UniProtKB/TrEMBL annotation:
Position of the signal peptide: 1-34
Keyword NAD belongs to the record: no
Domain DUF11 stretches: 347-458
Stretches of the chain forming a coiled coil according to its record: none
InterPro entries (alphabetical): Host-pathogen_enzymatic-act, Ig-like_fold, Lactonase_7-beta_prop, N2O_reductase_N, OmcB-like_DUF11, WD40/YVTN_repeat-like_dom_sf, YVTN_b-propeller_repeat
Keyword Signal: yes
Record's keyword terms, sorted: Signal
Protein known as: Beta-propeller fold lactonase family protein
Short name of any one Pfam family annotated for the protein: DUF11
Highest rank taxon of the organism: Bacteria
Originating species: Streptomyces amakusaensis
Length: 470
């Protein structure tokens, strides 16, 4: 099911326990050669840049790989001990939450610098997870304890443990966050998130309900079933199963496109992704991917699908318009999930003006304007200015010798802040240049356009009475 920063129901997940129930447990699977790679992969430092990134937990290699979806390359590797299993992104894209089944813990990855927090114990067999639409709470399904841990994302503490009596294969929040759906063998359980109580249990005999994908309007939920090879269709208003769509070949994960017309289904039986028309309830295309596809994630516009291949140690990238694989990216060992996050970005652009003030004590007045060109809100920034050699003062920056440090406060998109400098002109300048150069040297969030991070102006003077800033 799909997991994106804008769809906190967490739809791209893996169900290792469901695999075991179906005789396909990743841990017991025979060695499989990694999938062939059609795109060059690389691992670099952890600093994030602007754009959308895919976070892929790899249970066997104890790490999370970060893929830049613009270039389909691995740009960071984050060590996560304890068998990282599933991942979900916060709605604002600042965090990715990762569970570790073997350790029974949760870690939080900061998408600004791709570092993980210390582990937070949640329960035995910590597996699937779902973030509320406002990002304030996180549900973690503890498979072995058959309960849910409720995590306050601000304090990063477990605030409640709910005894739901479900060894969940998957959990997913409805788009409005009012209901939490849990799947297990032959049953689907529904939780009211206002009261955190179970309100319904739906029997699905002779089945293995696995992953859940919601229609964008929340009117229907689609549940993959590896035992009966169908997608169960649930009416979320009546909370009943109203039909089934045959998809064959052990359907594992499911994601619904943003327009609500199609569902993409990862199929373990033949290592393909089925493109399903929801209007006709039929498979319209079958896309070969890597070995044992375990999780699906759709780009926010639905143009690309990212498929984690659990036994192929790769991610397949599908063009959903042509239903073709356009790239295969090597990741770690045993990728079981995939979460898309778009870290917030704010383009802080600098402009600088210089105004001559000729006179017996002539000077040059510089005005620095820092403007947030978006798309996100600027939290903070630091601008460092290299000053002319002669005396320069500033009423709103800290000046030390020929360097000034200027703090830029919180700015909404389109907002701006100004800083001012005054440089004295020497009595006998005789063509001396007076150059001030300002550069953004730090800030949050990431700046997607470093090309406008520096501004410079130069004036020349013969005497304090003759200053040229043209």
């Amino acid at each position: 099911m799909l997991r994106t920063a804008t769809r906190p129901s967490g739809p791209y997940r893996t169900a290792l326990t469901a695999l075991a129930l179906a005789g396909l447990a990743l841990a017991s699977a025979p060695p499989v050669q990694a999938d062939p790679i059609s795109a060059v992969s690389r691992t670099t430092a952890v600093q994030a840049s602007a754009g959308t990134f895919a976070y892929v937990p790899n249970r066997a290699s104890n790490d999370v790989k970060v893929i830049d979806t613009a270039s389909n390359t691995v740009t960071a590797t984050i060590d996560v001990p304890g068998g990282p299993t599933r991942a979900a992104a916060s709605p604002d894209g600042t965090s990715v939450y990762v569970t570790s089944y073997s350790a029974g813990t949760l870690r939080v990855v900061d998408t600004a610098n791709n570092t993980a927090t210390a582990p937070l114990p949640t329960g035995r067999g910590a597996q699937d997870l779902a973030v509320t639409p406002d990002g304030s709470r996180l549900y973690v399904a503890n498979h072995l304890d058959k309960n849910l841990a409720v995590v306050d994302t601000a304090t990063r503490t477990v605030t409640a443990t709910l005894p739901v009596d479900v060894a969940a294969n998957d959990i997913a929040l409805s788009p409005d966050g009012s209901r939490l759906y849990l799947t297990e063998r032959e049953r689907i359980t529904i939780l009211d998130t206002a009261t955190d109580t179970v309100v319904k249990r739906i029997a699905v005999p002779a089945s293995t309900p696995n992953r859940i994908g919601f229609a964008p309007d929340g009117a229907r939920a689609y549940v993959s079933d590896m035992a009966t090879h169908v997608l169960h269709v649930l009416d979320t208003a009546t909370e009943t199963v109203t039909g089934a769509i045959p998809v064959q070949q052990r359907p594992f994960d499911v994601a619904v496109t943003p327009d609500g017309t199609r569902a993409l289904v990862a199929r373990n039986g033949n290592n393909t992704v089925a493109d399903v028309s929801l209007a006709t309830a039929s498979v319209t295309a079958s896309v070969p991917v890597g070995t044992r596809p375990a999780a699906l994630a759709l780009s926010p516009d639905g143009a690309r699908a990212y498929v984690a291949n659990a036994a192929g140690n790769s991610v397949s990238v599908i063009d959903t318009t042509t239903d073709t694989v356009t790239a295969t990216v090597r990741v770690g060992n045993g990728p079981g999930d995939i979460a898309l996050a778009t870290p917030p970005a704010a383009d802080l652009g600098l402009t600088l003006t210089a105004t001559p003030r000729p006179g017996l004590t002539g000077r040059v007045d510089y005005t620095l304007t820092a403007t947030n060109h978006g798309p996100g809100r600027l939290t903070n920034a630091t601008v460092t200015a290299d000053l002319p050699a002669s005396g320069t003062t500033s009423p709103d920056c800290t000046v030390t010798g020929t360097t000034a440090t200027c703090a830029v406060p919180d700015l909404a998109p389109g907002g701006s802040a100004t800083r001012h400098f005054a440089t004295s002109v020497a009595l006998l300048s005789l063509g001396t240049p007076y150059t001030l150069t300002a550069t953004r040297t730090a800030g949050s969030p990431t700046d997607p356009n470093p090309g406008n991070d520096t501004a410079s102006r130069t004036c020349t003077a013969l005497t304090p009475l003759i200053i040229n800033c043209a």
